[in-house]
Amino acid sequence: MISAKQSLMWFLLFTNTIICTSKSPVIRPYQKDTDQAAIIAIFKQNPQYLLGTEWGNTEEEQLTMAKKYLESEKYHTLVLEVDTVPVGFVNYCVYSVPLYGWIFGQKEALFHLFGISRDHKRKGYGLLLSRKAIESIKMEKVSSIGLYVYEDNRSAIALYEKLGFKSAQGYLHTKFNSFFGIPIFYRLNF
Asked: How far is CA 177 from the centre of its chain?
């Protein structure tokens, strides 16, 4: 018979082994030379949400545009890696609100591109990456973060609502956008 103390010792030994052998996810800035192929692979896994080919652009044209956003100095990209492999990313920009922001210095941010590899979805990585991006954006003293999401992308909407984002459109506008396949705008105010 194993005593409670021995059971606890085995439990702690077992859980410590698991914790020590599995690597924690790391979030870091995008590095073109090492990350681009993995990020493009994530794009290709989620073409309906990331590439927007329904607007008449080919997949290749959309990938070319995505590469420009990833490499632009106006945009910031964070990469989430697990066991040194990039498995997710978020690309965002911070900008002055036209006219009002130029005068009063008000800034907003926009999540532009966001994706998690198919094998790493539903594991909390999207939430972790989003929180890190929001934390980075807050340091730039923005008043809000916006993003566009398709109405049928229920898992993304659930993630964004969990983070505090709210639809910035009325019911009829949302239904209009949905009918024509236009993404819905969500906003997180500070």
From this structure: 22
| CATH value of 24-189 in 3.30.70.920, 3.40.630.30, 1.20.140.150, 3.40.50.10490 | 3.40.630.30
Q: What is d(CA 185, CA 144) in angstroms, rounded to the nearest whole number?
A: 13
Out of 76-80, 111-115, 164-168, the most confident range is: 76-80
Per the DSSP assignment, residues forming a β-bridge with 119 are none
What are the domain boundaries of the chain? 24-189
**Residue 35: left (phi > 0), alpha (psi -120 to 50), or beta?**
alpha
Q: Is there a contact between 141 and 104 (Cβ–Cβ < 8 Å)?
A: no
Cα-based distances in Å from 169 to 12, 76, 101, 187: 50, 26, 22, 10
CA dist., res. 25 & res. 151, Å (int): 29
Tell me which residue of 91, 100, 90 sits closest to 143, measured CA to CA.
100
Residue 12: predicted pLDDT: 42
Predicted pLDDT at 149:
87
**Tokens read off for 10:** 């085995």
Structure tokens at 188: 């997180």
CB proximity list for 6: less than 8 A, separation 6 or greater: none
